[in-house]
Design brief:
- There is one protein chain.
- It is built from 2 helices and 26 strands.
- By secondary structure, the protein is mostly beta strands.
- The protein has one domain: Neuraminidase (6 Propeller), CATH 2.120.10.30.
- The strands form 6 sheets. It has a 5-stranded antiparallel sheet, with no helix packed on it.
- Strand 18 and strand 19 form a beta hairpin.
- The relative contact order is 0.17.
- The N terminus is likely disordered.
Length: about 375
Amino acid sequence: MTTAFSHRPDAREPASAGRRAPAVGALLLVLAVWAGGPLAASEEYCGTYPHRVSTVKQLGGRVDWSWANGLIAYDRPGSDGIYYDVHVMSLDSAKDRCLTCGKHGLVPQRHNGNPAWHPSGNYIVFQSEVADSTATPFESNPGRGVNNVLWVTDPAGREFHQLTELSPSDQVSGVLHPHFSPEGSRLTWSEIYEGAVRTRTAAGHWRLVLADFVVGSDGRPGLQNVQKYELGRPSFYETHGFSPDGSRLIFSSNLAQSGFARINNDIFVLDLDTFALTRLTDRRYNEHAHFFPDGRKIVWMTNANVASRGTDLWIMDDDGSGKERLTFFNKFGCPEFAGPRVAAADNSINAAGDRILVYTHDQVSDFGSIELVELDAPP
């Protein structure tokens, strides 16, 4: 369904699939004992798409795979088992560098996460919780974004630059899921301006944000021409990135839901020229959608056909048709089965379109692993 909205600039994440985590605190130890051994690579598959699943990182989180250098940016809890840090690693995990650990005076040392690569491979944008934050670690987790602002660094973590600030006028402030456009000249994210308690909603009220990403003559990165959008009544928005040609934004939102169903999100695509909005899903909970490199297919997560309220990855055509389940982390008897309530969440596709990294975690905590889904061929 495609609807033309009059856009208005606003005035003002079950048991982990990688089932054995290193001991980084009592909670992680409990999770490791409860969850069992590691997930082995699959030899067979369930569903339409032939695929194999293996564990890349036993303790990992939100993830982005660079098409420029093949490196993986991800977040994971630090040694305290509470606050997240940004890492860069190779696919075989032989090289793994923490970019934000111990960088006192360069970047705040609370939550740092949700990294995303610039298409050049020269920059990584990420969320950082402000140093004087009064939010709980749960609220400010990179998957929720309260009191988070955007920072950018290089792949070695040598220089750090703050891109956004908290809003002094909004009741609650924070950011979520930044993504660069394919050519690297734009950056999108979502921001919260009213909290869940005040709005009596599950996630509060958010906006879509789009800005120009620029690098000054002094080499300092920054933002210009920041535009903020709401596409209807106050709702939740989470950005997932751009189409490969940069003409469309893809995001999840509950803007089309009403009543109790407002706890559910749908996947939407927004044409940036006409501001025509296309709703791609209309049942159950949907999130974390990304275009395959050729733009014809989209992978996303949903709890459709999962009675336990876990989530799996599905694939659909870019117009919302041809929906097929890809992974079966929550299906007993399938090779990648990992427990009764596994959330397959943030994901990233490689440049060839035949491999997907996916962050999986249990529904009680955010602690999980990064899994590699290998397809026989791009869908």
